[in-house]
Write a structure and sequence with these properties.
The complex is a heterodimer of chains A (257) and B (256). Chain A is an all-alpha fold and 257 residues long. Chain A has 10 helices and no strands. Chain B contains 10 helices and no strands. The chains are: A mainly alpha (257), B mainly alpha (256).
């Protein structure tokens, strides 16, 4: 099959997936904006005045990068899981599987569409944040790389979740029990230097600490952890997640059983 | 109420309670985890920087707000989800043709949701006790106001379920109405921290009164006069409860 035909298959699935969330754009993009707005006003402004500066930044500035990453991770994960699981549940996935579209291209279409949604959400949250504070964009490349790798990582993890999920409750387990707690404890709202000894060490076991701090470094130039190492780890994790996803799909787990 | 009706009412309540108890982990875990996170991150870590608000440590200050928030959310979600499913699967027709009068059907749904809402509230109070010494100044007032809140949001849930046409719309009222009003109702701050206009606007927000009265019954401090707040939330509850029952009698979304 020529590269052009392969591309058509990818483009079609990508367009279908993107259309899925763009059709209901109000429901896709407004709720995360409202949540962010509430956090900005209540924690950034009202409570922020009592918190005082954090690592030399105003509290509003400090929480902005974390809030963006929080929405990017959640959106990428939820979109990928929900979309693939619905396709599995309604059996429309079978029509994609019998088509001549290669498994990897199918995955890439799902992943890139979720990435697009989460990146749009992230940009919207940044724009919203600019109404409350200003940012410097210290290291543009770091910002872009973290943005893209994080959304890709969480889209892929979302697909893996959907592949293993047996019912709708399984779709919510990881976001509720793993992602939300790790995000809140992942340095979105505080610098780990505010924690006492043992909690600081424990925090370093939380992968989201590295994502949030790398992104904060890119935007504001401040980080609690080593940035280059975090980027490397993020890249490695994304690669591992992707390969894992390709392998389980090739084996037909969850989709061809 | 005739004894037959009593049996029917109890059956409906029992069925509805079984619905959410069947997978109780999914029903209670998310609220519990979020409450723990808020208490840990904002109450403990940030609380050291924020200091005391209204004379109490920050984790103690936000606990009542969290109780209100999650009890209203679970009352809303439970009624809306359950009633919409019943409409969607047409199970509601079986209930409608039964000899159970309309007002008892509404009451049955509300009772079950109130049970879930109160259970959530108690869970969060227990969690709060691990973070700071538990206070409970006026337990009866707390029960009464939690009941009012549960009925109010069950009514909002049922009205939403009557007018919505697909499951995802359950989140619209939540994201656009409940969450913003609740967050601006003073869960995380005292109205005294706001500028004058902010304070005035907050008085138009019914949830300020709910948070205030629950906070008073738990930690003994309130932003506004307790009697006024109690009257306000009682009136709101009666209006919504009456409105919902009236819409049910007119058959909105169920007999059309």
């Amino acid at each position: 099959m020529s590269a052009k035909t392969l591309l058509i298959g990818y483009q079609t699935l990508f367009a279908k997936e993107t259309h899925r969330f763009m059709r209901i754009w109000k429901q896709s993009f407004v709720p995360p904006l409202i949540t962010s707005l509430l956090y900005f006003v209540i924690f950034g402004r009202i409570i922020g005045t009592r918190v005082g500066p954090m690592r030399g930044l105003s509290y509003m500035q400090f929480i902005l990068p974390g809030m963006v990453m929080m929405q990017v991770m959640m959106t990428a994960y939820m979109n990928a899981t929900f979309s693939l699981f619905t396709a599995k549940y309604s059996r429309s996935i079978e029509q994609i599987l019998v088509s001549p579209l290669a498994a990897q291209l199918m995955l890439l279409a799902f992943i890139s569409s979720s990435m697009l949604r989460s990146l749009i959400t992230g940009v919207l949250v940044i724009i919203l944040g600019l109404f409350f504070t200003h940012i410097h964009l210290e290291h543009l490349m770091v910002v872009l790389i973290t943005f893209i790798l994080t959304s890709m990582l969480f889209s892929t993890l979302g697909l893996i979740n959907a592949i293993y999920a047996k019912n709708f409750d399984d779709v919510n387990v990881i976001p509720t029990f793993v992602i939300t707690p790790l995000t809140y404890l992942g340095g979105v709202f505080y610098s780990i230097h505010s924690l006492s000894g043992i909690w600081q060490d424990l925090s370093l076991l939380n992968p989201i600490i590295y994502i949030v701090n790398t992104f904060r470094y890119g935007i504001l130039g401040v980080s609690d952890v080593a940035v280059s190492l975090s980027l490397l780890a993020l890249f490695g994790l994304t690669l591992v997640a992707y390969i894992f996803c390709v392998v389980i799909v090739a084996r037909g787990i969850g989709l061809r059983q | 109420m005739k004894s037959g009706q009593w049996v029917a009412y109890c059956t409906l309540v029992k069925k509805e309670i079984q619905r959410f108890m069947r997978n109780w982990r999914q029903r209670f875990a998310p609220a519990t985890i979020s409450a723990i996170l808020y208490l840990a991150v904002f109450g403990q870590v940030m609380g050291q920087k924020i200091g005391k608000i209204a004379g109490v440590p920050y984790d103690q200050f936000i606990l009542p707000g969290l109780v209100v928030f999650y009890s209203m959310t679970s009352a809303y979600m439970n009624t809306c989800f359950s009633f919409f499913s019943a409409r969607h699967d047409k199970v509601i027709n079986c209930i409608l043709v039964s000899p159970l009068p309309n007002y008892l059907i509404v009451l049955g749904y509300f009772t079950a949701s109130a049970v879930r809402s109160m259970m959530t509230a108690i869970l969060i109070l227990i969690i709060g006790a691990f973070f700071s010494p538990p206070l409970l100044y006026h337990p009866l007032l707390l029960l009464l106001s939690l009941l009012f809140i549960a009925v109010t949001f069950s009514a909002i849930g049922m009205i939403t379920a009557m007018v919505m046409s697909e499951m995802l719309q359950i989140h619209i009222v939540y994201s656009f109405l409940i969450m913003p009003l609740a967050y601006f109702g003073g869960i995380f701050y005292s109205l005294h921290l706001l500028p004058q206009t902010g304070k005035m606007v907050s008085l138009l927000n019914p949830m300020s009164y709910m948070v205030s009265i629950v906070r008073y019954s738990i930690i003994g401090v309130s932003d506004m006069p307790v009697v006024t707040a109690l009257i306000v939330i009682a009136v709101i509850m009666l209006l919504l409860y009456g409105g919902c029952t009236a819409l049910f009698y007119r058959g909105l979304g169920i007999r059309q």
